Amino acid sequence: MKNVVSALALLAGISTAGWTQASPPVENGSTASRWGFATYVGTFAPILSLVAIQNGKDADVRLQSAPSIGAELTFAFNQIMSIYGGATHVRSRVNHSTGMTLIGADERSQADSPVGITSPSMGFLFSPQLGSLAFRPTIRIGGGVKFYDFALREVKNGVQDPMADLGLGIVADGSGSVSFTAEARWTPSSFDPKFLPVPLIAGKQQLQNDWVFHLGLKFGL
Q1: Any idea what the CATH number is for the domain that residue 155 is in?
Q2: Which sign, positive or negative, has the C-alpha torsion 42, 111, 187, 54?
Q3: CA neighbours closer than 13 Å in the CB half-sphere of residue 137
Q4: Is 146 exposed, middle or buried (0-12, 13-18, 19+ CB in 10 A)?
Q5: How confident is the prediction along the chain (221 residues), in pLDDT tens digits per residue?
Q6: Position 40 in a domain
Q7: Bridge partners (DSSP) listed for residue 79
Q8: How many domains is the chain built from?
Q9: Closest by Cα among 45, 40, 44 to 72
């Protein structure tokens, strides 16, 4: 939870600095449709264990917080509603729990190993105008899939878990066709231990409570 609070504070501070330099927003009367492209960087913050092992002996299998990058394409129907499609990539690490069986000697000598998480998603973005302010709140409602790429061993076809993609943030209009964005995205999903490269002593499918906090730039095309 401390990671979540720290990330929100960082986004708020940087975004506030951007607002003071923003130019006046586009008039509400404009209804021209347009394409946009956004790129962003941020932080991935997993809140729950990937797999909880409740035998009182072995450690849970957990992902670490890690940097994230992403990009998305948007199409605005008007000044308020858009559709989006994009993907986020995280390069995290997973601990080698003693609950993992059939793990090799070299793997046991390491505390953790890399795991890549790629999450394509699509949905709707809502950005209502608040009076004459030079920034707008953003509400994201969508869904996608999480693909896990474990380095322990190759897993054919990877791991595919459906996820929700829900977010709250701000977009501050900059000069020309460039806008500053800051957002907190909640990507809940589930994970089944049977998809791990090595089996576990115990563990069952459980919900994942993952967050991504990002800053970025949106360009009008």
Answers
A1: 2.40.160.20
A2: negative
A3: 6
A4: buried
A5: 444 444 444 444 443 344 333 333 444 434 455 899 999 999 999 999 988 887 778 888 899 999 999 999 999 999 899 999 999 999 999 988 877 766 666 666 678 889 999 999 999 999 998 888 888 999 999 999 999 888 876 555 566 789 999 999 999 976 668 899 999 999 999 988 877 767 676 667 889 999 999 999 999 88
A6: yes
A7: none
A8: 1
A9: 40
Q: What is the pTM of this model?
A: 0.79
The DSSP element (H or E) to which 182 belongs, if any, is: strand 178-186
116, part of any domain? yes
Q: Quick check: is 181 in a domain? A: yes
Three-class secondary structure of residue 57 per DSSP: coil
- Domain span holding position 173: 2-23+34-220
Residue 52 lies in a domain: yes
